[in-house]
Amino acid sequence: MAAAVSLYNDNGQFTKSLNVYYNSGVPTANANWAGTINFGGIRNTRVAMHEIGHTLGIGTHWKYASLMTSGTWDGPVANALRAEFDGSGTMLGDSVHMWPYGLNFDSEDGTRNRVRHVMMMQAMQCDMGLGPCDVNRLVGTFRRIVGRASNKVMDTVGNSDGSTIQMYGDWGGSNQRWSVISHGDGIYSFRSMQSGNRAANVHNSGTTSGTDMTITSYSGENVQRFYVDDYADGWSRIRPVIATDLCLAADGTGNNANVETATCSTSTSQQWKLIP
User: Fold this and answer.
1) Helix and strand numbers, DSSP H then E, in the chain
2) Whether the Cβ atoms of residue 75 and residue 33 lie closer than 8 Å to each other
3) pTM, full prediction
4) Is there a contact between 184 and 204 (Cβ–Cβ < 8 Å)?
5) pLDDT tops 90 at residue 265
6) Rounded to an integer, what distance in angstroms lies between the CA atom of residue 117 and that of residue 78?
7) pLDDT tens across 88-121, in order?
8) Confidence of residue 23 (pLDDT cuts 50, 70, 90)
9) Is 77 helix (H, G, I), strand (E, B) or coil?
10) 160 DSSP assignment
11) Coil, strand, or helix at residue 105?
12) Closest CA to 152 of 168, 139, 136, 165
């Protein structure tokens, strides 16, 4: 239960008090809008996250029923997020459950789907008018930083101070996942999920084009802070706070291409998405 609550709090903004019980008469688990969760035969993180969704209105609030009509969700925010995740499509469901990203079965489970589940709960709460709509979706855990030019992801080569950041095909490793922290005013830090206490850093505080990106122990100083600017077609540019005329760029489209700073341009090598 603690892991489920942590994932919700790290990747969304929800106001809900939960009361959790064990009931041997419950086959799996159940939950209601009032915030009560009863666990029976199955107790794990996937089931806990699924049941939290019910306490947020999925299948338990009249506004859910008003938007889930003939098996299709009529809310624009959740449907737009589904298209962002999968390229197309709308949210589907019935009177009790929604999919995809409902975590209804073990086959739907996984780190990426757990984060997407939380983000989808946030979007559906917005559609229902039950939660905020101005949540910063960049902020959260287990984010990939995807390069537009290659569709590869930022990847740390090692797990120590000074380890370089490169581009590599996404294989799901923790060295390819980042915790995105907001400092306000469009400024963020990217902490490696591999090391926990290390963050993306402009090597040696360099302010010239061609400076490598590395990871170092997290301090929150400006050398580890970056502007993330909307640029084009849903892609962003990332600029170091210490050198705002430079952008992060991939030095090539193959595996092992360095991530470095470069004079900002329209090149797709400087365009990124931060997504689970």
Assistant:
1) 5, 19
2) no
3) 0.90
4) no
5) yes
6) 11
7) 999 999 999 999 999 999 999 999 999 999 999 9
8) very high
9) helix
10) S
11) coil
12) 168
